[in-house]
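Pasting as-is:
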Amino acid sequence: MMVLESRSTPAGDLPPSVRDLIRRAAEVVLEAPAEWLEEVDTATLTAADMGRIASDPDARAYAVRGVHMLVTHWASANTVHPGAPVTPMGDEMSDTARSMVYRGFTEASVDASRLGQNAAWRRWMRIAFDLTTDVDDLQIMLDVTSATMSEFVNASVSALQDQIKSERAQFLLGRNAERLKVLHRVLDGDEIPSKSVETVLGYRLDRRHTAAVAWSTEPTPQLSDLDRAIDAVAAQSGAGEVLRVVAGPGTVWAWLADATDVGSEALERVLAPDTRCQVALGPSRRGMDGLRTSHLDAVSTQRMLVRTGSTHHVAVFSDVEGVLLLTRSVEQADRFVTNTLGALENNHPELREVLRTYLACHGRASVAAEKLFIHRNTLLRRLQRADELLPRPMSVNPLNIGMALEIRHWREQGIA
């Protein structure tokens, strides 16, 4: 008996009897009754991640058609060049890829391909044993075709994955452009039937919307980073649904449906410390006009962060509305902060935060101390020291001091 090496025998070195055996077996596959292919179909559709496809008649039909194309392609190739490597399928399955993308599937199932391959291989072995009893030819034939079948399936699945990615990119690009066009009209205040807007956006308007603008000034911004930031904010605020569009190379617009109001500090804590993007949120407002005005306020918040050079990761409009008004002129705002805070402007950050928190708590020392996780006496000592450094004491200038501290807070570096 011939001793085989662990790697398949090259197709050109195959004995004529083995090439003939592979050719005849492939011809049997091409003439196989329907139930043979059904074995492969059934195995493929039992994969754990194929449930949605199996239950969708159209998606199932495309999946089955794809399986049949793979089997037929491999068998046909082996009738022409028995045992030779088979060119993978990819472009030929563009309809399958497009159908999957339109139905929301983002990748091909590797488990399904393995299960289908195993079922096809079992049938292939039965065919081979029915055609010959020559052990040497069987051993070579099964060794060679096992390798070519596995390589063909792997390469075809990889090509299909690439095709799905390409189709998805085109699909998202087209859908994003269509959404962005409609959104610009809504934001410009054009009269558009809400049903038409909902159809294009795939998003209901008869609820509350919290607009978010996520952006990055990195030389090569990653949309995945912006998406993760929005996802984190949406999860923290309990949003039921998120509408998002790519507004530019480094900017994503989003609307969070029925989100709970959450403050800037709480949202800042849920973002990754090393995130390279910032998020500005508008107030929660209802309906199509609410979607528009919330976005406009989110954009105003974004501009404030950029204008003041703030590196805070998150800013909520309701937290910075006063600062928006005070910083329309950066030069005037800077003079106001310098004149009001004096030595506290660029020194003693712990004193600034104590004073800012104390004023935000309406002068309730115990509440402020609890919020800052310090003892009340410690807070009082720091307040006294801050008062000594102010150009005018807190008792006669509390409103201006509070406003100056808010401007200074949003102008400073956020969590790093």
